[in-house]
Amino acid sequence: MIYHVYILKRRPDGFPRMIERRTLSAHSDDEAIRIAKENLKLSAPPTASGFALRKQDGKEIYRWFKPEA
């Protein structure tokens, strides 16, 4: 299956802003979530604060943000 990963940056007003879009393929939703988390740890832009994962049809299946300190 094809998935879209939206790299997000948290704005001061609390709403996220998309700063990058990536595409990945995986056999299941769980595998896509695992791959997206690993990729974000390895190659995220320095301003990234989280990501949203959507299937090709646009349905969001996962959203994650770094905990605020």
How does this model look, in words?
It is globular and about 35 Å long. The chain has one domain. The chain has a four-stranded antiparallel beta sheet with strand order 2-1-3-4, with helices on one face. The chain has one helix and four strands; from the N terminus they run ββαββ. Strand 3 and strand 4 (60-65) form a beta hairpin. The protein is 22% helix and 45% strand. The termini are far apart. It is of the alpha+beta class. The protein has one helix at residues 29-43; strands at residues 2-10, 16-25, 50-55, 60-65.
Largest sheet geometry: 4 strands, antiparallel
- What characteristic shape results from the CA principal axes? globular
Counting H and I runs of at least 4 residues, what is the number of helices? 1
Category from helices, strands and their pairing: alpha+beta
Radius of gyration using CA atoms only: 12 Å
Order of helices and strands: EEHEE
Low-confidence stretches: none
- What strand line-up does the widest sheet have? 2-1-3-4
Structure summary, number of beta strands = 4
Topology, element by element:
Blueprint: E1 2-10, E2 16-25, H1 29-43, E3 50-55, E4 60-65
Antiparallel strand pairs: 1-2, 1-3, 3-4
Key attributes of the depicted protein:
single chain; 69 residues; 45% strand; 1 helix; four-stranded antiparallel β-sheet; alpha+beta
